[in-house]
Amino acid sequence: MTYASIAAAQASSPVIREDSTINQVFITYDLVSPRFLQKPAFVKEGAIVFVRYAGVNRYAVTANTTFAEVNRKYEDGLSALQTGLGTLTQAKEATAAADSSNKETKTASVGDREKKEKLERYFDAKYKLLDRIETSLSEVNTQALLIKRIVQMNKDIDSAKNNPYLSDKTKMQNSLFLNSPSSTIKAPGDFSNAVATSIGAINAELRKTEGYINGIHNNMDKVGDQLPKEERAKTEKTLADLSKKVDTLKTAYNGTNADSLYSTVGAMAQNASMLLDQDFMATSKESGTASGDFIEISGKLQDNHGAELKKMAAFKIPTYGGRRIDFSVGVALNIGGQGKYSYDLRKNPTNATSGSAMDSVILLKDDKHRLLKFNPILHIHWYKVSKCAVQPMLTIGLSPDFSDMSASRLSLGGGLGFNTTNELFRRIVLNAGVSVGYGDELKTKYKDLDNYARFGDLDASELTKKTLKASAFFSIGFNLGGSGHQPSTTTSNQ
Question: Is 28 part of a structural domain of the chain?
Answer without folding.
Answer: yes
